[in-house]
Design brief:
This protein is α+β, with helices and mostly antiparallel strands. The chain is built from five helices and six strands; from the N terminus they run αββαββαββαα. It has a six-stranded mixed sheet, sandwiched between helices.
């Protein structure tokens, strides 16, 4: 199973948790989880395909698990498609981080812009047809 497919499957089952999946000698988080860990823990964002990822070395994962627990951030750690660690923290903390708020504002603005463009096109195409 590809990494992104596995991430999406695990994320669907644990949508209010940060998902860290073992990939080689790293545990990686993708997409929105990568942005959150970048914001909270300062992990470097890396581009892969059409998404972002962050990674922590396998031998340091417990250190990062402790840091996430200190911030009360819920997470699951996955190895061989199985959850091996699970911490049920308070996801509300994540929503309050400044970068995450800004990301949500940008996504909301894009959504409003797309709806506005759709309305304009619908009206104009209706007149053309």
């Amino acid at each position: 199973m590809k990494l992104l497919e596995e991430y999406n499957r695990i994320k669907a089952e644990n949508e209010n948790c940060i998902v860290l999946i073992k990939s080689g000698v790293f545990y990686v988080a993708l997409g929105i989880d990568a942005y959150i860990l970048n914001d909270i823990l300062g992990l470097k964002l890396i581009d892969i395909s059409n998404t972002k990822k962050v990674g922590v070395p396998v031998n340091s994962v417990k250190k990062y698990m402790n840091l996430m627990q200190n911030y009360d951030v819920p997470y699951v750690v996955v190895e061989n498609s199985e959850v091996i660690y699970n911490y049920k923290g308070n996801f509300d903390f994540v929503i309050k981080t400044p970068k995450f708020k800004k990301l949500l504002e940008i996504l909301d603005m894009k959504d409003k812009l797309l709806k506005y463009i759709y309305e304009i096109l619908s009206k104009n195409l209706g007149e053309i047809l």
